[in-house]
Amino acid sequence: MAERIIILDFGSQTTQLIARRLRELNVYCEIFPYNKFPEYCDDICGVIFSGSPYSVYDKDAFKPDISNIRNRFPLLGICYGAQLISHVSGGKVEAAGTREYGRANLSAFDSSNDLLKNIRINSQVWMSHGDTITEVPDNFEIIAGTVEVSIAAYQIKNEKTWGVQFHPEVFHSEDGIKILENFVDICGCKRNWTPSSFIETTVAELRQKLGNDKVVLGLSGGVDSSVTAVMLDKAIGKNLACIFVDNGLLRKNEFENVLNDYKHLGLNVIGVDAKNKFYAALAGIDNPEQKRKIIGKIFIDVFDEEAAKLENVKWLGQGTIYPDIIESLSITGTTIKSHHNVGGLPEYMKLKLIEPLRLLFKDEVRRVGKELGMYENLINRHPFPGPGLGIRILGEITPEKVRILQDADDIYISLLRQYGLYGEVWQACTVLLPVRSVGVMGDERTYENTVALRAVTSTDAMTADWAKLPYDFLAKVSNEIINKVKGVNRVVYDISSKPPATIEWE
Fold first, then answer.
1. Spatial strand order in the sheet of 269-273
2. pLDDT band at 97 (very low <50, low <70, confident <90, very high)
3. Residue 60, SS3?
4. Which helix (H) or strand (E) holds 162?
5. 3-state SS string over 216-254?
6. Other Cβ atoms closer than 10 A to 308
7. What is the pLDDT of residue 499?
8. Which of 97, 249, 288, 461 has the fewest CB atoms within 10 Å, i.e. is most exposed?
9. N-term to C-term CA, the chain
10. What is the value of pTM for the model shown?
11. pLDDT above 70 (res 177)
12. Which residues are catalytic?
C-alpha cells in the first residue's frame, strides 16, 4: 500500500472502530498489538494509540517504549493512549473521583490547533475512563477541557503528538470523525483508499502471486466467499474452481438460488448435494459444540473429496476478512479465539492459502462487491453462520426439524423484505426451540413446536441491540408461520441484546 496509519492496540473494545472510521475517510490503516510495531516503516504516515481497560499504574499495564515513535511520526493517543504518553513524559495520572463515563461537552478548546479545526462550541464527546490526567509536563499544551475534565486534550509543544481523553471514534462524539480527519490531514495522507483502488491493486497482486496456478474455493453463498470468488475470477479466470456444498442446513431453496445467482458472474461452480451425509453424522447429537465439530469435519471431508477430483490445484481460497484476523490474536500475540477461516488447514490437503479480503471490514467487502457489479442480494445478505441452521435447531437435528425451520425462516425473511425492513436490521433469523406447547387449531388441541424470531441492529456484530420491529409486522409473521408451517403452533420474539446474550442461540 502507498501509505498507512498504524493503530497500536492496548486492548480497547473500540480499537476496530478507530480503524473503521479511518477507512471511511479513505485512509488505509492496520491494527497491531501494542508491542508489535511493524518493522517496515517507509509507508507509515501516522500512529494512533488506542484505549485500554488498564490504568497506567496497574502492574500488568501495557507500557511499551514509545521513544522510537514520538517525533518520528505524527502521533495521537486516545484515552489510555493519551494517559500513557503523559505518564511516561512525567505527567500525573490519578484515579478520578467518580468514573467518567458517557457524554461530556468541550466547554473550552483551542480552535486554532490543527487537531481541533472546525470543531463546534460545546461539541459532545464520549468519555470512558476511571483515571484522569491531572497534570501535564511543562512542554505539554492543554488544548481542550470539559466541565469535569480540565485536561481533555493536549499537544506536546513543537511536536506532532496529541492526546485526547475521550473517544473520537464512537458515534456519540459528535465531531469525532472531524477530529480524526484533522489528524489524517496532519499525517499528510492522500486519502485514496477506495474500493476501486483496492480491486486494481489486489487483482494485480493476485496475478503476480498465483501466475498460472490453480485455486479451489469453498463457496458458502455469503458475501465474503462470493466477493472472494469474483476477485479471484477477475485475476485468474478459468484457473479458479468453486465448490458449493449443500449440507442440508441451508435456508429454504438456497442451494438452487445461490447457484443461479452465480451464473451471471460466470464462475466455475461445482454444486455438491451432501445433505444425507450430514444428517447421518448428526443423528442423535444434541450438544452444540459437537454439532459444530461434526458439521465442520463432514464439510472438510466432502470438500476434500471434490477438490481431489481437480488436477494440479495448489491454492485454497478463503473469504477471511480483517475482523477474523484481529479476533484470532490477542494484543500479546497469543490466540484468544479460534475462527473457521484462521489457523491453518488439515495437513493432508497440502494447499497454500490465499485470502484476498483479509484486510477488509465487512462493510468494505460489500462496497467492493458493489464496485464489482455483483447482485444486491449477494452483497447485502445478512450474515449466515458456517454451521447454518444446525445451530438454529436447538437439540438434535433431523430432516423434519430442518423442514420446519426452513419453512418458518422463509416466511420471516420474505416478509422482512416485503415490509422494507430487511435492510434495517443487521441480522435476522428463526430458531427452532426444543419446546412443545399446547395450542388450539380449529376444534382440535395441538401439541407442537415453538419458534423464536431474532432480529438485531449492529454495525460490526461486536455489540448488538434487539430490533424494535413493528407490532403489526410481528403479528403478520406469527400468523403466517402458525397457519402455513405444519408443526408450529407458537411464535415468540427474542428481545435480548449482545451482551449479555449472543446473536445466535448456539
1. 269-273, 240-246, 214-219, 313-317, 352-354
2. low
3. coil
4. strand 161-164
5. EEEECCCHHHHHHHHHHHHHHHHHEEEEEEECCCCCCCH
6. 11
7. 82
8. 97
9. 39
10. 0.79
11. yes
12. 79, 167, 169
